Amino acid sequence: MRAVAASPRAAEALRALERASKGLLVISECDEPFLPFAWPEIEAGPFSPAALAARYGGDGGGGGCGEGRGAAAEDEDDDEDDDDDGSDADATPPFTVEPAAAWLERAARAAEAARRPDEAERFRALGRLMAALLRGPAVAVRVGGGVGRLGVFLVGAVRRGDDDGAEEEGGSDLGVFPVGAQVVGLETAQVET
Asked: Given strand 148-158, what is the order of strands in its sheet?
């Protein structure tokens, strides 16, 4: 995906996330890298986990190692629903939402189990960076169901200059960010069998 940020603060957050995740791999059937991700609100409307699953979920589930990823593959082909087979191509694929910190901690433990202690610490550092850069709880949205390739998006709303880290009203629901908030994060994939 073109990780284009709408403001200097969002661009700075994207650069920091990209630097922190460079060379870091998600341990699963295939070790997958992270890609910077900026929610295209002008094109896609306000962010929600369901909107993310609907927009990028077609490439997240199924498949195996090295296949196209959701957001990155989406920009390659904007002619998504050219099916004339009568199927519901607009159906939102299954997705789950959890705190990004929990997902990153599981990734760190998987790295430790694989005897990669440096990567384990990098996952934890990435969690601390996300907490510092993003307001409200950052979330992990896993798109796809069952076995195969799952798209994983670690996302949050960029802090404003006057944001001291306090929760905003209505920000307690996972994946619900203030209207107009610039949502950025990282995309990766997991292959599960």
From this structure: 35-38, 183-192, 148-158, 134-143, 95-99
- State the burial class of residue 184 (Cβ atoms within 10 Å of its Cβ: 0-12, 13-18, 19+): buried
pLDDT tens, residue by residue, 97-142: 999 999 999 999 999 999 999 999 999 999 999 999 998 778 888 8
SS (H, E, C) 131-190: HHHEEEEEEEEEECCCCEEEEEEEEEEECCCCCCCCCCCCCCCCCCCCCCCCEEEEEEEE
Instruction: Characterize the bridge pairing of strands 148-158 and 183-192.
Output: antiparallel
Tokens of 19: 């630097």
Structure tokens at 10: 């969002």
Work out the average pLDDT over 57-79. 48
Q: Cβ(34)–Cβ(45) under 8 Å? A: no
Does residue 97 sit in helix, strand or coil? strand
Please tell me the pTM assigned to this model. 0.78
Contacts of 114 (CB under 8 A, 6+ apart): 27
Token pair of 100 as six digits: 């990004």
Band (pLDDT 50/70/90 cuts) for residue 44 is confident
